[in-house]
Amino acid sequence: MDLSPILSPLNDAQRAAVTAPVGPMLVLAGAGSGKTRVLTHRIAWLIQVEGASPHSILAVTFTNKAAGEMRARIEGLLGIPGAALWVGTFHGIAHRLLRLHWREAGLPQGFQILDAEDQLRMVRKLLRSQGLDESRWIPREVVWFINHQKDEGLRPKALKDGNDPTRRQFIRLYHDYEEACARAGVVDFAELLLRAFELLRDNPEVLRHYRARFRHVLVDEFQDTNAIQYAWMKLLAGSDGAPYIVADDDQSIYRWRGARVENLQQFQRDWPQAQLFRLEQNYRSTGNILQAANALIAHNAGRLGKNLWTSGGHGEPIRLYAAFNERDEADFVTQRIRDHMQQGGERRDIAILYRSNAQSRVFEEAFLSARIPYKVYGGLRFFERAEVKDALAYLRLLANRDDDASFERVVNLPTRGIGAKSLGELRVAAREQGSSLWRAATAAVASQALGGRATAALAGFLQLIERMAADAAPLVLHEQVDLVLTASGLIEHHRREKAERGEARVENLEELVSAARGFEPEGELPPLDAFLAHAALESGEGQAGEWEDCVQMMTLHTAKGLEFPVVFICGMEDGLFPHQRSLNDLDGLEEERRLCYVGMTRAMRQLYLTYAEQRRLHGSDSYGQASRFITELPEDLVEEVRPRIRLGRPYAAPTAAAHHRPGRRAVASEPVAPGMRLGARVRHGKFGEGTVLNVEGQGPQARIQVNFERQGTKWLMLAYANLEALS
User: Fold this and answer.
1) For the segment 258-273, what is each residue's pLDDT rounded down to a tens digit?
2) Span 158-166, mean pLDDT?
3) Per-position DSSP letters for 59-115, written without gaps between them
4) 59, 51, 9, 33: which is closest to 245 by C-alpha?
5) If you average pLDDT over every residue of the chain, what do you get?
6) Is 375 annotated in the active site?
């Protein structure tokens, strides 16, 4: 038997993981260490050497692309059709099981799958049928609650309301939603997983059949599994089974989606006899990049532990740029891209990574100005994002009441009781009168043509626009934008959305204020009209075509699994990255550090880290300090591009006292006033409770930086702040 196709491409560690005797196994596969190769070659080994039938193998991945790649590689190695194997995503495998066992699963034979938008529409329909106000019971929040419970394996009857009327209503909506889905014969994505788990749990014969069939269960990206995915895998494999798990606990970055990195520790408890293999040789990055990434991630506690290395050279140092502000940061990146091009490089070699989607705007403007083609990977350009277009529609109505497209976009956003039927009647009236929707609406309100409730809601909308226009008239441009975001209810509407989606939308809306503040109108147009024209023009150009050589822009989350010769990680300031909400949360801070590790290990040859001493983001100016992650990198691996001209802020992060570098200002470790030590809890009369992050100066000029739980990070003059030290 010729085993060279299976074994010859493998290094020693990979070969050990591929050829190990059958049994429970955990393969810790570092970034760029060839985990997909190990998985596919393990499957080939099981079939060719261990005599396993292709029908006895179940391989689970997290994306259809990864599943297709794995199937193709196995076909290439063994020459057998990939269809003989069960290789797919968790959702794909669950769907396949439910199609085969629809009766045992309690489903109609022809059940259909609801996508995310279909699910949202069904929830909206449910809220309307119960007469619930969508501004109080936000549809996306209801969807999040339902999916979260399903991801935890919980049905409505298992939930307790804790005497909380809001939670009680959510549970009731979950129950009613389930009944509506059953009547319609549909299942959502979360239901696929939960129903597949319940199929095995509640049908012993079905479970026995699949345990006997799938003697080899292999799971990729195991660090990203949630509660129901782990429970399903554990049930299918059984305590006597031999699951083969491939994971990297240092790349677990989806906690907000329900992923549980602790499932790795749970796996070792459930299968204590499991063998552990480490894949540490990296085939992507230079030695310096890997050493820096290793040093960073070593600050996380509870790791299973590994140390990436390469047989290649050390490569160039990591370059750190301290920008004056966000525009200087974008200009620096733009110039480095030009340098790269002049040296014969391609734009597609370069990735710009950032923590928040809102950061893309300044880079987009810089690239448009410099005529550098770019692509926002996995997302929309700033002015094309739905929430930004909603805000612009309100602003356009202030400038022109007869803008029908803007009227239709926001007349019922946030929901105010103006339904499709009323809007349809307005369209008919406008067409008959030869007028705009605004004029038709004004006439309909005057004549009470739409009925009491709809008329009142429409009158309220018209009054809102007129009131905002009057209030905005004396204000400067960015204040006009800020007023509209607040008065329209858009900010509050998205703030109530759960998880990161709502937060990202709020950040984008606040960034629109920053865009207005930095906008310099040209010509004779009033500032608002000029800004609206600017937004329309920017949304219509700049992003590269599908195959054009262009710079790649994306969030750090989106970058996982990708690699680029040159990587810029931008906006590395405490409060931005790590994110503000993680500064006082150890688990959250460790996930942010893993996210930084993921970003650094995307770089193949060159890695740039940038931060701004002053940044205008989310509508306000802030004076930040370099991310604590920068202070956690070995000094000899980092080269500063220019001496910083400080704006009176210390370089080091408050938790990094042990990592201060020679010649740099250290953060004060002694209190400048009783109880004002770093890490102390304090209370402010207006801002509430918070944690001391930094102190600067002495005597009457002493200043203190506090991360307030509700108001974020603020610098205060200690002499006037009247802070109360909490025990």
Assistant:
1) 888 999 999 999 999 9
2) 93
3) EEESSHHHHHHHHHHHHHHH---GGGSEEEEHHHHHHHHHHHTTTTTT--TT-EE--
4) 59
5) 87
6) no
In the DSSP assignment, the letter for residue 439 is: H
Q: How confident is the model at residue 500 (pLDDT cuts 50, 70, 90)?
A: low
Q: How many residues does the chain have?
A: 727
User: Does the fold of domain 383-520 match that of domain 112-184?
Assistant: no
Asked if CATH classification 1.10.10.10 holds for the domain at 112-184, the reply, yes or no, is: no
Task: Name the active-site residue from 220, 365, 511, 632.
Answer: 220
CATH classification code of 383-520: 1.10.486.10
626 C-beta neighbours (distance < 10 Å), count: 24
> Taking residues 63-90, what's their average pLDDT?
84
Helix axes 227-237, 204-213, angle to 10 degrees: 80
Active site annotation includes 160: no
Catalytic residue among 15, 19, 36, 280: 36
Report the C-alpha gap between 61 and 304 in whole angstroms. Answer: 22
Q: Is 31 helix (H, G, I), strand (E, B) or coil?
A: coil
Q: Which residue has the tokens 């449910």?
A: 126
Nearest to 676 by CA among 635, 628, 711, 724: 724
Query: Which residue did the predictor score with more confidence, 619 or 598?
Result: 598
Q: Which of 61, 149, 225, 251 is catalytic?
A: 251
pLDDT at 268 (0 to 100): 94
Rounded percentage of the chain residues whose pLDDT exceeds 70: 91
Catalytic residue among 221, 250, 591, 613: 221
pLDDT of residue 406: 85
| CATH value of 4-102+194-279 in 2.170.16.10, 3.90.550.10, 1.10.287.470, 3.40.50.300 | 3.40.50.300
Catalytic residue among 150, 602, 628, 644: 602
For residue 516, count other CB atoms closer than 10 A to its CB.
Answer: 22
- The domain ranges of the chain are 4-102+194-279, 112-184, 317-373+545-652, 383-520, 681-725
Q: Is 705 a catalytic residue?
A: no
Tens digit of each residue's pLDDT (9 = 90 or more) over 599-640 = 999 999 999 999 998 888 766 677 778 999 999 999 999 999
DSSP letter at 701 equals G
Residue 650 has pLDDT above 60, yes or no: no
pTM: 0.74
Amino acid 648: pLDDT:
38
User: How do strand 703-708 and strand 688-696 relate by DSSP bridges?
Assistant: antiparallel
Is residue 221 part of the annotated active site? The answer reads yes
pLDDT at 158: 96
270 is catalytic: no
Q: Which residues contact 251 (CB under 8 A, 6 or more apart)?
A: 31, 223, 560, 594, 597, 598
Residue 656 scores a pLDDT above 70: no
CATH of 317-373+545-652, one of 3.40.50.1400, 3.90.800.10, 3.40.50.620, 3.40.50.300: 3.40.50.300
Is residue 665 part of the annotated active site? The answer reads no
- Of 574, 600, 593, give the one whose Cα is nearest residue 253: 593
The pLDDT of residue 676 is 78
Using alpha carbons, list the distances in angstroms from residue 173 to 133, 156, 176, 484, 502: 13, 9, 5, 32, 21
Between 128 and 317, where is the model more confident?
317
Helices within 152-226 (DSSP H only) = 165-184, 189-202, 204-213
**Active-site choice (35, 361, 616, 644):** 35
How confident is the model at residue 210, as a pLDDT?
Answer: 96
